[in-house]
Specification:
Elements (H helix, E strand, L loop, with lengths): L2 H12 L4 E7 L2 E5 L14 E2 L4 H14 L9 H4 L11 H6 L11 H9 L7 H8 L16 H15 L3 H10 L8 E3 L12 E2 L9 E2 L13 E4 L1 H12 L6 H7 L3 E2 L9 E3 L4 E3 L8 E7 L2 E11 L2 E9 L9 H15 L1
Antiparallel strand pairs: 1-2, 1-13, 3-7, 4-7, 5-6, 8-9, 9-10, 11-12, 12-13
Helix pairs in contact: 1-11, 2-7, 2-8
Length: about 350
């Protein structure tokens, strides 16, 4: 079975609106999906990458640290003086989700608001007021909890440290050095105009799948959201692991992983700085990030030590609230790559 057949068969079996994919080996683009009539899209199809943006954010933070514009040990309160934060919550804590700050993602009122007025996002203050009064989930550095609010504050730290907008910081420190043509941070509904249609129930009052682009405001993604392609996100993660973006010390810091649930038996995932790992992967060491939101479900993973060398895979699904590209699907795609090389 070819790689194209693998992706095409999964799309047909699941009925998702569309899917694009790319595979890169040792920096070279090995394969990209080609557009077909059955919903497989070319790998240059643009989509909002949602939380994969956190990997870009972490790269920017570490690059600014290398330049001396900020320190990872800086108290966040020193950069965001109008936010009521304890002085022992640091930039590093935000990067690793170990700050103890909560998240708005699990709150029913957040999802109700997105559904009832998708074009009118909460203000910065509304996001903060929905989470901060609930207090810390644990002492800073003593646990792990995914926090979009943490990355919202981190975005603000980067803007203060660089003296530029978040979009400009990502362009200067990630997109421009890697010659990315389709990767950019957006902040208006019009920013979705270059994206392929994505269908989800989250923005419809009746819960019906609709094309989210005309109505969903990116401001609902408080940490910031970028648009990119499957091909370009593999370029980013390959260059990252190849040592082409960060200095060795910064890369080692980023890839220092802690269990997502410290002390819990059978923990399958770990998290570094803006990057995650599947501990029990049959393919050994791996790093990546997923992203999901109205209309789209996305994943990028790199396996640095395969028999073929450094291999990165990105799969973008243009539907939400339904079938997802799973680890089993990824393993099948990997097997196809090795079969082709045999």
């Amino acid at each position: 079975m070819t790689l194209q057949d693998c992706v095409s068969e999964w799309r047909s079996d699941t009925g998702v609106a569309g899917v694009s994919a790319a595979v890169r080996v040792n920096g070279r683009l090995h394969w990209t999906s080609a557009a077909t009539r059955n919903g497989v899209l070319a790998a240059d199809a643009q989509c909002p990458i949602y939380s994969i943006t956190k990997t870009l954010t972490a790269i920017c933070a570490l690059r600014l640290s290398e330049r001396g514009a900020l320190n990872l040990t800086d108290p966040v309160a020193a950069w965001c003086s109008d936010v009521d934060l304890r002085g022992d919550v640091t930039v590093a804590h935000l990067l690793r989700h170990t700050s103890g700050l909560g998240d708005y993602g699990p709150l029913p009122e957040y999802h109700d608001a997105v559904r009832s007025h998708p074009s009118d996002p909460w203000s910065r203050r509304q996001f903060l007021d929905a989470v901060l009064p609930r207090g810390l989930c644990f002492e800073p550095g003593r646990g792990w909890a995914y926090s979009n609010i943490g990355y919202m504050l981190l975005r603000e730290v980067l803007q203060h440290a660089a003296g530029r907008t978040f979009a400009e910081v990502v362009h200067e420190l990630v997109a421009a050095p890697l010659a990315l043509q389709h990767t950019r941070v957006i902040d208006t509904i019009d920013g979705w105009s270059t994206c392929v249609p994505g269908f989800g129930p989250e923005v419809d009052v009746d819960g019906q799948p609709v094309d989210v682009r005309p109505v969903y405001h990116p401001g609902w993604c408080a940490p910031g959201v970028a648009v990119s392609t499957a091909e370009e996100v593999t370029r980013v993660i390959d260059a990252l692991l190849a040592g082409q973006i960060l200095e060795p010390r910064s890369l080692a810091e980023m890839l220092t992983l802690a269990p997502i649930s410290p002390g819990a038996p059978g923990v399958a995932h770990a998290y570094g700085m803006g990057i995650a790992s599947e501990i029990a992967s049959p393919r050994g060491a791996n790093y990546g990030h997923g992203g999901g939101g109205p209309g789209y479900d996305l994943d990028v993973t790199i396996f640095p030590d395969t028999p073929l060398g450094r291999m990165s895979i990105a799969v973008f699904v243009c539907s939400s609230g339904g079938p997802r590209w799973s680890q089993a699907c990824q393993e099948r795609l990997l097997s196809c790559v090795f079969a082709e090389d045999a």
